[in-house]
Amino acid sequence: MKKRLVLVGGGHAHLSVLRALAIQRPLGVDVVLVTPSRFQNYSGMLPGWVAGHYPLSACRIDLLPLAQAAGVRLVPIPMAGMDAQRRCVALQDGQQIDYDLLSLDVGSETNTSWLEVLGKKLLPIKPLDSFFTQWPHLLAAARVKPGYQLVVVGGGAAGVEMALAALAAFTQAGVASRVDLVASESGLLPGHAPGVQARVERFARQAGLGLHFLRGVGTEEGVLLSDGQLLHADSVIAATGARPPVWLGMSKLGLDAQGYLWVDAHHRSVSHANVFAAGDVCARADAMLTRSGEHAVHAGSALAHNLLATQAGGALQAYVPKRRSLYLLACGPRYAVASWGRWSAEGQWVWRWKDWIDRRFIQRFSTTGLVPTTQMQEHTP
Length: 381
Description:
The chain is an alpha/beta fold and 381 residues long. The chain has eight helices and 25 strands. The protein has helices spanning 12-24, 46-50, 63-70, 128-144, 157-173, 194-207, 293-312, 348-364, and strands spanning 3-8, 29-34, 39-41, 60-62, 73-75, 79-83, 88-91, 96-98, 101-104, 109-110, 122-124, 148-153, 177-183, 210-213, 216-218, 222-225, 230-232, 235-238, 242-243, 261-263, 275-277, 282-284, 327-330, 336-340, 343-347. The strands form eight sheets. Strands 5-2-1-9-21 form a five-stranded parallel sheet, covered by helices on one side. A five-stranded parallel sheet has the order 11-18-12-13-14, covered by helices on one side. The longest helix is centred in the C-terminal third of the chain and has 20 residues, at 293-312.
């Protein structure tokens, strides 16, 4: 009887798993991919898409041809929960899928607990699928309302890139608007070198972005800052801290203090040896990892190896994160800032570098020529 491997989520790491399965096509294993959509919207190109540099088709990967090439059954239905003791995952349509081996690459959610009073004005960056759907409506509303006011909350890379991308989109559309970015007292891009922070702040001020280095909470009118100033807002984009998926707390898996799946150096659950994970959904028990897409991409090859090795009884491989990560921060127009440790640079050439890397990533997982094409295996209940 075949063993069943269930992949939940079509994130960066699982792209590497699908690619490895397409190349090796292991025998004796039934593989199922559960994900909300057949498309993976690539987070690295989100700012460029918002700014109008890319069509949507250039920023997403069609998982169906890749699953087809790998002999994987694609189930395009969101996950509702799981039970690690019963070895099953539950889908939002009521289905349950049993597994022998499970891998999670579902990312994290945006923590909007202090902004939820905004109601329909609030647009979290994550989940990405929802943001990609809602942004065109926001832009359309801004086109027809003079003096449209947008507030972006979050001073990290996601918030900075989104605020500058939105500002560029409004400018290109000829929209009379105001865009404000609310960071905390820590300023822009905490954790990056002072030179990087200075470059981005200078660019943001020259572009006309309103900067507020204060804490803010949501009100019905907008965002109330800690100094008492109220930023009126027609819409608020949340690029605030991450939080784990709610269902993880009921999964019976071992979790860290923040509620993320606790994994070892092999990205295997410390509590259940038949569960693996990569990306923002997990936390390492032996190392501190930033919640960066770069780690998900690089951990993908180790995850793929370990899933196949577990099925075949082979040795596992550790993922050793690099000491420094390269960040290429999009600044709205075709301009970007590079950050690598204490080194930084900026210019149109950095944007072209980022554009080349992003397009190459999409292309790498957009081919069906890895193995001979087999019959389409999309499951639509």
